[in-house]
Amino acid sequence: MIAIAIDGPSAAGKSTIARRVAADCSFIYVDTGALYRAIGLFVLEKGVSTMDEQAVTALLSEIDAQIVYREGAQRIMLNGKDVSEDIRRPEMSMAASNVSAFPSVRQFLLELQRNLARKNNVVMDGRDIGTVVLPDAKVKIFLTASPEERTRRRQAEFLQKGINVDYDALLAETILRDKNDMSRPIAPLKQAEDAVLVDTSAFTLEESVAVISQIIREKL
Predict the structure, then answer these.
(1) Own/partner pairs for 22-26, CB < 8 Å, 24+ apart?
(2) Cα-atom radius of gyration of the chain, to the nearest Å?
(3) pTM score
(4) Could you tell me which residues are beta bridge partners of residue 28?
(5) Cα angle 93-99-105, degrees, rounded to a multiple of 5
(6) pLDDT at 192 over 80
(7) Of 67, 126, 203, 210, which has the fewest CB atoms closer than 10 Å, so is most exposed?
(8) Residue 110: closest CA among 97, 100, 121, 120
(9) Alpha-carbon dihedral sign for residues 152, 158, 163, 165
């Protein structure tokens, strides 16, 4: 099986670009961040702090998180319920960042992610795909953009859904999440040595997709 790993910080365009690239290649798209959001959602619904490692770890035995595909679209199932929309609420971003720092959570999801790549040609995006989850991926890309541009994109996405979010508050959250993701002791966000760096700050979506697609064609 062929694996394409796309890593990078939040709102760098990973999911949108990876989904487009996967469709162009007829590969399966895997959004690993959605799995961490699902765990964050479960923890919050249980009334537990997403920063309480011991309490979060104790809840993992109650979680059945799965990725399923319906009409080519990825859906996230949590204990048999489709939570694909619920995990996109604004507060889920920090919840995912918090629980993803715990070794128990990362280990819990690691085999699920690897199994998908063993059975399918995949385009998988996340924070540690090229460094930890799929270190032997055929193509590795590190996708980034400035915090300000990523915040603008996130705000636009929320506004499209009718959710008003303050730009300054969202920027502060973006910077905090970057710090959390890059400084955690287990599988921190970083560029793999053999990954191609792509900064999309000045690119449109179409330009970003074109650049990534060209890199993949050259690598494959």
Answers:
(1) 22/122, 22/123, 23/72, 24/213, 25/121, 25/123, 25/216, 26/121
(2) 16
(3) 0.85
(4) 122
(5) 130
(6) yes
(7) 210
(8) 100
(9) negative
